[in-house]
Write a structure and sequence with these properties.
With 261 residues, the protein is an alpha/beta fold. The chain is built from 8 helices and 7 strands; from the N terminus they run αβαβαβαβαβαβααβ. The longest helix has 29 residues.
Length: 261
């Protein structure tokens, strides 16, 4: 074997595209005042990144603001049901840090019960937050990514409930999560040629106040069982963003050992 061939097979002399660093990357996170959104924001910040933290409730963002100040954290309050909120989140990243590299559509609402147990307002809230909120953020991100010209990441926090296995007490919620998953697949087909990656992360039960308060697990308290933790979801998001640009993940399902499909 020639020296050149040996060098080629070993990779010596060639750039190796390893995992990407999150240092100085700018990530927009909706629902950042919640358990999962907060965990995602903290992990990105701890890795040296910059975060635009969005939430409907200003007080929910206070812990992040108090811990990180304004050097690497921008805070934007707004309702993800409004398209203007998505535009403002992306604009906040450009104003504070000069660009936006990734968006994480994490904000969500879920009510659990039979299909006739929801009020009309609750149905509209789930559809508007989970579906429209994801669409608005994706549109705002694509406009910015195209303006920057070097790709980007759209990460959607879905749920295994959207994979044709939704429980009997979460039909409308499952429908909104199915919409998110299909949106993610279609955006991947539309945008990947531009270097814009779309990933949907679909966890099963996560130990959060969101799950416990709304009774998704019936009489079981998520804190007393071996469900997924918010930090598990945050690690999945971080891994997705660290993937070499040649690689993309369309759908990542996550289950704890304590739950069956």
């Amino acid at each position: 074997m020639s020296d050149a061939a040996a060098e080629s097979r070993s990779g010596v002399g060639h750039a190796v595209d390893r995992a990407r660093s999150l240092e100085d990357t700018v990530v927009v996170v909706t629902g950042a005042g919640g358990a999962i959104g907060g965990a995602i924001s903290r992990l990105v910040l701890e890795a040296g990144g910059r975060v635009v933290a969005g939430d409907l409730r200003p007080d929910a963002l206070a812990p992040l603001r108090d811990a990180w100040g304004e050097d690497r954290l921008a805070v934007a309050v707004g309702d993800v049901r409004d398209e203007a909120t998505a535009d403002a989140l992306v604009a906040a990243g450009v104003t504070a840090f000069g660009r936006v590299d990734s968006v994480v559509a994490n904000a969500a609402v879920g009510f659990y019960g039979g299909v006739l147990d929801y009020s009309a307002d609750e149905v509209s809230l789930m559809v508007d937050v989970n579906v429209k909120g994801t669409v608005w953020l994706s549109r705002a991100a694509v406009r910015q990514f195209r303006a920057q010209g070097d790709g980007g990441d759209i990460v959607i926090l879905g749920s295994v409930a959207g994979l044709l296995i939704g429980g009997g007490k979460e039909a409308v919620y499952a429908a909104t999560k199915a919409a998110q998953i299909n949106l993610g697949y279609a955006l991947d087909r539309e945008l990947r040629s531009e270097g814009i990656r779309t990933t949907t992360i679909a966890p099963a039960g996560v130990n959060t106040p969101f799950a416990a308060a709304d009774g998704r697990f019936g009489d079981r308290d998520p804190s007393e069982a071996d469900f997924l933790e918010p930090e598990d979801i945050a690690q999945a998001v971080a891994y997705t963003l660290r993937q070499p640009r040649r690689m993309r993940t369309e759908l990542w399902t996550m289950w704890s050992l304590s739950e069956s499909h």
